[in-house]
Specification:
The chain has 4 helices and 14 strands. A hairpin with a 7-residue loop joins strand 8 and strand 9. With 302 residues, it is of the alpha+beta class.
Length: 302
């Protein structure tokens, strides 16, 4: 190519680039987070045996937020086939619009009010051991009350989808503890750490023998007992207070049911390998719906 033709081509390219430039910086849709969350559903169809707690656990949502999103009051009556929203419009799973200067605006098609998460306020009195302000917290006006206790301060328990009544004898009363004195659910070697990428669920795996007793890591009320949460096998979820819940997965058998009140150290299941390739207890602790490293709460093993 001659020098004249080369110069002409460059001039044409520069001219076109200049015509495409304007004073307003273009907006760029940030899809990085959205790609990571592409497989996260925005709704869930209730199945028989579900509880609001098990649905919230399966989708990494705080049960109070899930209740508020769907205007459901405790004890959270559900019916099979019912559709629940899993997130508010314009929450973190919705791509945002960022300018080339780095300024971020509201998500597409939403208002700034859509991302309000003031329903959840962490108490200043809360510490790493699970101590919480006994008064609890409430969502803002216009949302259902987050209170899950009756006038006597006892937890109202949970309804189970597809069951006509939630079995809860009068003697089954649980007053949520403000401070959870955590203890090991089984004695054994930790063979799966919280930070290991091979763990598809956030917790620890504790080795043991099939049939070994699995014990409650703290006092509480059973808010789920079943095998309907994918990846957990035979699962028990215990609610200790409105902030802290614990889960015991891959059990061989379950010794408790929803609305049973358990004490710390009480046998609740036997160890197994349901929905797992080896015998071990998968143990999780969640605070306000977020996974926590159990080793930060459990005492040193003797």
């Amino acid at each position: 190519m001659s020098n004249y033709k080369l110069a002409g081509s460059l001039a044409a390219v520069l001219l076109l680039a200049g015509c495409g430039t304007n004073a307003t910086a273009p907006q760029v849709q940030d899809l990085s987070f959205n790609r990571q969350q592409a497989d996260k559903p925005v709704s869930y169809q209730v199945h028989r045996g579900d509880t609001l707690y098990s649905i919230a656990w399966q989708h990494d949502v705080d049960f109070r937020q899930l209740a508020a999103l769907n205007n459901i009051e405790a004890p959270y009556n559900l019916r099979p086939g019912q559709t629940l929203r899993l997130s508010a419009a314009g929450d973190a799973s919705t791509p945002t619009v960022a300018s080339s200067q780095g300024a971020t605006t509201s998500p597409l098609g939403s208002s700034s009010d859509d991302t309000d998460d003031s329903w959840l306020v962490t108490s200043d009195a809360e510490d790493a051991d699970g101590a919480v302000d006994a008064s609890g917290t409430l969502p803002p006006a216009g949302q259902p009350s987050s209170s899950t206790v009756d006038s006597k301060g006892n937890d109202v328990g949970t309804a189970v989808a597809g069951e006509t009544t939630a079995e809860k004898p009068a003697k089954q009363q649980y007053s949520p503890v403000a401070n959870v004195a955590w203890q090991w659910p089984v004695k054994g070697k930790v063979v799966g750490d919280f930070t290991q990428s091979r763990n598809i669920t956030a917790g620890i795996d504790i080795a043991g023998q099939k049939g070994q007793s699995v014990k409650a890591a703290g006092p509480g009320i059973v808010v789920y007992a079943g095998n309907g949460v994918r990846g957990y096998g035979n699962l028990i979820i215990i609610k200790h207070n409105d902030h802290f819940l614990s889960a015991y997965a891959h059990n061989q058998s379950l010794n408790v049911k929803e609305n049973d009140v358990v004490s710390a150290g009480q046998t609740i299941a036997t160890m197994g390998n349901s929905d797992a390739d080896q015998v071990a207890l998968h143990f999780e602790i969640r605070k306000d719906g977020q996974p926590q490293d159990p080793l930060n709460y459990l005492p040193d093993q003797a």
